[in-house]
Amino acid sequence: MLNRYRVVRLWMVACAMPATCIMSGGGSLVDKGYSSGYALCAAAIKLLRRKRNVRQTANFVPPLVRSPLAGGSGQALDASGGPMQISRKVAGAAAVAAVLLATFFILFWLSGRNSAALTLYGNVDIRQVDLSFRVGGRIADVLVDEGASVVRGQALACLDADMLTQQRDEAAAYLEGQRAALMRLERGYRVEEIAQARASVSAATALAENAAINLRRVVAMRSSNAISQKELDNARAQSREASAKLRSAQDQLDMLLSGYREEDVLAQRASVDAAAAALKRAEIQLNDAVLTAPQKGVVLTRAREAGAIVQSGQTVYTLTLTDPVWLRAYVDEPELGRIKPGMPVRVLVDAAPGKSFPGTVGFISPTAEFTPKTVETRQVRTALVYRLRVQVEDPENVMRQGMPVTILVDGADAP
């Protein structure tokens, strides 16, 4: 038979130690659970003795209360001074109950740790953009003031467009001239030019035939010594000259019939394309005379006024982009494995107590860095952290640049 008090003591310590460790946040089971276990065991022994009608004095403290670490024997005695006995069935039931209860507390503790949200700290990182004209000129009108809310495509300022309009018209006229030249080359020579070339060929043919007849006559006369050799030479020269003129006229007619060279047509087409590009550039510059908002936002700075002469690229407005809102936060290296891009988060700000804003983890830096002095974390400031960016929805326009925020990642895995 087992000692009754020893069984009860083991049972109560096994049940009390997991619960005590859970409430204390982990650590050594002996250090954090033994004191509570002994207190529960003492109470259980007193109840057991009352139930069994064991005689004891009011001031008697059973040896069980003393910790085995303090040198006590840890064995309780019954009323007759002998060890109290208990059946093996009761001991087995007590051991099974102790194991089940300890298992329940451990599972409850682990589930609580797995469901704990990861808390991060950071600041609102409102993006800003400097707006400027892509062309220089004189500002004709400034349409919005600082603090105004603007939407994508809304006009903010405009330049005098007189010179830009003139440049556009000049480019358009030049393009029309190049197109006309290309059309002339593609159509070929005029019908009148071809007819004139045919007439030249006919005249040259007549002259060549006459020169050939005259040459034959002179050759016959020279054979009878009726004329001199000089006259024969002159007749031959005239015949060759007439034949050459005929060939030249025929080549000119062939050129007119075949049209312009293909290289000339291709070169003119390239000139047309260049003129079209110049016109397109002039139209773009004319459109750039109106400065528009690239995205939805709020005008932060109005740097120029109407009448000012600005160069290309000089800042006219500074716009803060309010959609979406980005948060800059930092996660400690031990917690890095609990967060991933795309995870949903809840954002808390002091300006809206009791409210949370939904967001999404958008970026996690691949390199480590030291914690900035403007960010507070639970670890020391010399610890390495990883920067991350969170995209959050702010329909009420509550968040401002640099505002501290608290980010709760509900779906983060337990470390």
Structure, described:
The protein is α+β, with helices and mostly antiparallel strands. Helices cover 45% and strands 22% of the residues. The chain has seven helices and 16 strands. It has helices at residues 4-24, 29-51, 88-114, 162-187, 191-223, 229-258, 262-287, and strands at residues 2-3, 85-86, 118-124, 127-132, 137-142, 149-150, 155-159, 290-292, 297-302, 309-310, 315-321, 325-332, 344-349, 357-370, 384-392, 404-409. Strands 3-12-15-14-13-16 form a six-stranded antiparallel beta barrel. A four-stranded antiparallel β-sheet has the order 4-11-9-6, with no helix packed on it. Strands 8-7-5-10 form a four-stranded antiparallel β-sheet, with no helix packed on it. A hairpin with a 7-residue loop joins β13 (344-349) and β14. α1 (4-24) crosses α2 and α5 packs antiparallel against α6 (229-258). The longest helix is centred in the middle third of the chain and has 33 residues, at 191-223. The chain is elongated. The two termini are 46 Å apart. The relative contact order is 0.14.
